[in-house]
Amino acid sequence: xxxxxxxxxxxxxxxxxxxxxxxxxxxxxxxxxxxxxxxxxxxxxxxxxxxxxxxxxxxxxxxxxxxxxxxxxxxxxxxxxxxxxxxxxxxxxxxxxxxxxxxxxxxxxxxxxxxxxxxxxxxxxxxxxxxxxxxxxxxxxxxxxxxxxxxxxxxxxxxxxxxxxxxxxxxxxxxxxxxxxxxxxxxxxxxxxxxxxxxxxxxxxxxxxxxxxxxxxxxxxxxxxxxxxxxxxxxxxxxxxxxxxxxxxxxxxxxxxxxxxxxxxxxxxxxxxxxxxxxxxxxxxxxxxxxxxxxxxxxxxxxxxxxxxxxxx
Length: 313
Ligand code: NAD
Description:
The chain folds into two domains: 2-179, NAD(P)-binding Rossmann-like Domain (Rossmann fold), CATH 3.40.50; 182-309, N-(1-d-carboxylethyl)-l-norvaline Dehydrogenase, domain 2, CATH 1.10.1040. Helix 8 (215-232) packs across helix 9 and helix 8 (215-232) packs across helix 11 (279-289). The strands form two sheets. Strands 5-2-1-6-7-8-11-12 form an eight-stranded mixed sheet, sandwiched between helices. A four-stranded mixed sheet has the order 4-3-10-9. The protein is α/β, with parallel strands linked by helices. The chain has twelve helices and twelve strands. Helix content is 44%, strand content 18%. A hairpin with a 2-residue loop joins strand 9 and strand 10. The model has no long low-confidence stretch (mean pLDDT 97). The longest helix has 22 residues, at 181-202. Residues 180-307 form the Ketopantoate reductase C-terminal domain. One of its GO terms (molecular function) is 2-dehydropantoate 2-reductase activity. This is 2-dehydropantoate 2-reductase.
């Protein structure tokens, strides 16, 4: 398959590398010049489960794609949420009338942006449990296993979605078709919508937060706001199950000592966060549906204030 990875940071590099290794024709598009230069000069270098791997992959700056002749079957979106619109603008001429566009970003409501550039019938939404990290421009760390759930957004797109599932699975990315992707997206949103913002504001790992007196009440309130908004979109959140999943993040023996990705973005790397597309999306949609979302609204404001205090970029 001819595949564009639009947003080739940590996750885009993982997907690009694995799809390339499975003999797909892959090009990467990104906006970070140092990363592009490093990949052009030295290849994409990965610490892949402890083995050092270098692959030669084509990569272009998103401002420089007008002359590329590449009739893509599939575009996989892996920008940060706040970069999505500008990436869609950059690549719009590369998205043909049969090109499928798969969004795997964390967060809620990205289809509202993508719909401005791609017909509904070509949009696929997904959710992934793979992880990845950037070590330096051109160098990524890819550890562990993961999976992908995806579904077509338009009514007639299941066959195309199944084809994409097959290509991803052939590349060992463990994809499966989902009959209700919105529910998985909202469920993952609950985990991100609690652990990410709260640990970032409190400057704590997940275990330390989980052991505070207020943890249960705060988490239950945030999850209830997500569930109320999800119900308006026919997405189903099993609240006790989601709360149990969140509590499993507090376990010191497994992942409790870990700082969530938003903490790493803002506190470690001084980068802006995706809060507007997690808790902020619930606050926006809550307003639209007449549902009060006081905790999601407040947490969104607090994270933005912290971004400003730290002069994040
Ligand atoms: P990323 O930050 O690694 O990459 C996103 C974009 O930011 C890329 O264009 C990248 O080149 C650019 N970028 C990265 N570091 C930069 C720097 N120092 N200076 C300038 N530009 C820089 O993001 P990601 O982790 O690949 O995440 C992409 C999407 O996938 C997000 O929505 C994220 O929430 C989601 N996601 C991430 C993971 C994970 O483990 N990383 C897991 C699941 C979902």
